[in-house]
Amino acid sequence: MLGLINIFRCQKPVQSPVCGLIRYFHKEIIPVEWKKPSIGWTKLNFDGSCKSLTGKASIGGLVRNHNAEFLLGYAESIGEANSTVAELTALRRGLELARENGWNDLWLEGDAKTLLEIIEKGKKARCMEVERHISDIKSILPDFNKMMVSHIYREGNGAAHKFAQIGHDLDHPTIWRLIPPDELVTQLLQDAQGTIVLRMKEMKDKSY
């Protein structure tokens, strides 16, 4: 019995295979799916990317219609910035492009849940730079007729993430209209087909 107890302690630095197996089964499986907007709406997915070693950041995003057809994509390197600023810059750029193209009923979706809550619920940010970016975004929102905001896990935001990754290698801001880059074709097709991606999330212990 003592030997069994020692196995379940999972002491470091030696990790028992049993420990890894227990952690695996102690995870919640969440199905993640990108969903099309309703007829008359367009959907903007956005993402920011920051490389930890260099501090260089980039942004990306895309707009699709109710048939999941690709309307526009964008990517850009923005120099040194943290992940929060990158996410906000990606959102602001996407909003500017949506406004320019007259997409007035817009569904915003990203994987930065806290930032979306700040924008949707009007919460204040502690950082002055972040608050400035949020103010810029809020000044654009009244230009739209209807607006919807939602969070999606990274697994469902893959297309926007790929655009943000492309941004790292660009020398100037780039916009794609109607025809996406080749490396996005498979991802866009999977989204349009409603492909479900499974996310593994750590389950919290319940107290009884």
Automatic annotation (TrEMBL):
Record-level Gene Ontology MF annotations: nucleic acid binding; RNA-DNA hybrid ribonuclease activity
CDD domains: RNase_H_like
Residue intervals of the RNase H type-1 domain: 45-165
Domain of life: Eukaryota
Any single Pfam family the record assigns to this protein: RVT_3
InterPro entries from the UniProt entry: RNase_H-like, RNase_H-like_dom_plant, RNaseH-like_sf, RNaseH_domain, RNaseH_sf
Protein's name in the database: RNase H type-1 domain-containing protein
Species name: Vigna angularis var. angularis
Gene this protein is translated from: Vigan.05G033700
